[in-house]
Write a structure and sequence with these properties.
By secondary structure, the protein is mainly alpha-helical. It is built from 19 helices and six strands.
Length: 445
């Protein structure tokens, strides 16, 4: 039984308490860096660490007067300190604190999303292996095309999740930068050496060049990656929704004991989890638009991005975290009706054999156009008469001597379509990330 989502670690990252705690972490790192270079007396950072107390209510009370959150924070923290408080925020501007602290939160949030990707990938790999040889109808344009296996479909999704690990890692490293370069990025009050030590203490890299802020293309890229991750969740959920339709009925999201599908129709079993996953992806795409618009700020900085980020960054991370919580729940309880898959495949009356027949007839007739016309006509007749295509072909092209009955039987063999899938599985599951994940989840000998 999967626990109900309660905004655990991800939600905690975005609380006021955690924000102010991270701010203090950044301020202390700046003092430590100044100590390292003789710009603050030894022991100053330890004194601040020992004496500082975070009182969120008091900070908000001060902010109601100052209308400046950083000043309110510094005032409240300083109330419990002695002489050491004069080294808090020394030579810094607000964005030195805010953007560096935001980078720490975003890096940590990315690590939580990566865990969600790992959980979803683990379920997809398990399902792909379990159903690697389970045949089903492949569909293009929503129309029966040629047979695939359910495992192949799941393997496609698994490979996509693997790509997201790499994208998220790149976006996380892109955002892993801090700054201590001052009001317009010129280091007028603290030299670059302080920034280098400051960032190293926080596990960040210094932004190579900045204005008053870390440039927002980094944040826009991260939001774009989150939206891509959400879009893949939507893709998987949309396919499951299609496969759960009454006319298809091949795959179903879990439906718990006592669950109800409709207040009016007791028979209903609706894919509500997948619909929720789909809707969340739309939200993420809207946040990307706002994030991209934050890139263009006036001169060395304005504040138009700030109010936007206070909404879209926590929202985006919490939405993706929740979306992939739901996805793991769906995949973990996925119900598969292999017999229905076989019946749906057979309902196509063998029309999916049209391409191998086309290829064989082209060799015999010497004309692809003529072969195409013959096979297309036979396929249309088979559908309208509701007769299997191989039966019609035996009465036509076999009777005419264009193919022998044995050749037709070999061509109209389901296994021909699936014969080369094993190397595909081996190729995908042999990737470095897939091997590492398989090793991490392998039972101990």
């Amino acid at each position: 039984m999967i626990a109900r989502y309660t905004l655990p670690e991800m939600g905690a990252l975005w609380t006021d308490e955690q924000k102010f705690t991270t701010w203090l972490e950044v301020e202390i790192a700046a003092v430590e860096a100044m100590e390292d270079l003789g710009r603050a007396p030894g022991g100053t950072a330890d004194a601040i660490r020992a004496g500082a107390r975070i009182d969120s209510a008091r900070i908000l009370e001060i902010e109601a007067v100052t209308h400046h959150d950083v000043i309110a924070f510094l005032t409240q923290v300083g109330e419990a300190l002695g002489e050491e408080r004069r080294y808090l925020h020394r030579g810094m501007t607000s964005s030195d604190l805010l953007d560096t602290a935001l980078a720490l939160v975003l890096v940590r949030a990315c690590e939580l999303i990566d865990r969600r990707l790992t959980a979803a990938g683990r379920e997809l790999r398990r399902l792909a292996q379990a159903y690697r040889a389970t045949p089903m109808m492949g569909r293009t344009h929503g129309v029966h095309a040629e047979p695939i296996t359910l495992g192949q479909k799941l393997l496609v999704w698994f490979a996509e999740i693997e790509r997201h690990h790499l994208r998220l890692e790149q976006a996380r490293e892109e955002i892993r930068v801090g700054k201590l370069s001052g009001a317009v990025g010129t280091f007028a009050h603290l030299p670059p050496e302080v920034e280098t030590r400051f960032c190293a203490r926080l596990g960040l890299r210094p932004a190579p060049v900045s204005t008053q802020v870390v440039q927002r293309d980094r944040h826009g890229y991260l939001l774009s990656v989150l939206a891509l991750i959400a879009a893949s969740g939507e893709k998987i959920a949309t396919e499951i929704r299609h496969l759960q339709r009454t006319e298809v009925a091949e795959v179903f999201e879990p439906f718990g004991r006592g669950q109800k599908g409709s207040s009016a129709m007791p028979h209903k079993r609706n894919p509500i989890l997948c619909e929720r996953i789909t809707g969340l992806a739309r939200l993420l795409r809207g946040h990307v638009q706002a994030g991209l618009e934050n890139i263009a700020l006036w001169h060395e900085r304005d504040i138009s991005h700030s109010s936007v980020e206070r909404v879209i960054l926590p929202d985006a991370f919490i939405a993706v975290d929740y979306q992939y919580h739901l996805l793991a729940r769906v995949l973990g309880g996925l119900e598969v009706d292999a017999r229905r898959m076989r019946r749906n495949l057979e309902s196509s009356l063998g029309l999916f054999y049209s391409q191998p027949v086309l290829l064989a007839l082209t060799d015999r007739l010497g004309s692809r156009e003529e072969a195409y016309a013959r096979v297309q006509a036979a396929a249309q007749e088979a559908w309208h008469a509701q007769r299997p295509l191989p039966d019609l072909l035996r009465e036509t092209i076999v009777a005419e001597g264009l193919l022998t009955a044995a050749e037709l039987a070999e061509i109209c063999n389901l296994e021909r379509f699936l014969a080369h899938l094993e190397p595909v599985f081996e190729r995908v599951l042999a990737s470095p990330w897939a091997r590492a994940e398989a090793a991490a989840t392998a039972p101990e000998a």
